[in-house]
Amino acid sequence: MKSLKIIFSLVVLTSIVSCGNKREPSLQYMPDMYVSVPYDVNGAEGVNGKPVNSKPVAGTVKRGGYPAYDILDTNEGYEKAKNELKNPLEVTEDNLTNGKAMYDIYCAVCHGKKGDGNGILTERDKFAGIPNYKDRELTEGSIYHVIMHGKNLMGSHASQMTPTERWQVVQYVEKLKADLK
Question: Which has the closest alpha carbon to 81: 140, 133, 136, 135?
Fold first, then answer.
């Protein structure tokens, strides 16, 4: 009888202990370290009663940023850029120096150091028909547009250069074109 009571007690004790969820701790000393408090940042009210995470006003340019380049990558867009787009930078020695540095990194391998279309990739027969700046009708807008969107075999270089660097390259390409005449 005594052993029956012990067995019954063990069965009841085992049943009670085994009913808990083993995947979750039964006691948490610092629950905020295990379960984060969810914050609804879009629901937070700002000073004006507008949500804190409201979108910026249309046309807003980030601090130190540049307006978006919104001329499309089409033949019409190319003609528009060619006729209307003007370089906002003034021609200075610093701009030409940095333009040359960027040109040497991104452009000279195909277009050549002089802009004559005889870059290292042309000499190694990797690409054929790379344009010579002397033979092309180039404007500052068309050069910038091609840097932004690419043309024919040339891909876009917009992600490698800032807008200021692109305009500096435009200045340097115009200088190379003038030197080829």
Answer: 140
Whole-number CA gyration radius for the chain:
33
pTM: 0.65
The two tokens of residue 14 are: 């085992």
Q: Which of 114, 116, 120, 152 is nearest to 135 (CA)?
A: 116
* Angstrom distances, CA of residue 168 to CA of 40, 60, 149, 172, 180: 45, 25, 17, 6, 19
Query: Tell me, what amino acid is at 103?
Result: Y
Comparing C-alpha atoms, which of 86, 59, 94 is closest to residue 140? 86
Task: Kindly state the average pLDDT of the residues 31-46.
Answer: 64
Is the separation of the CB atoms in 167 and 88 below 8 Å? Answer: yes
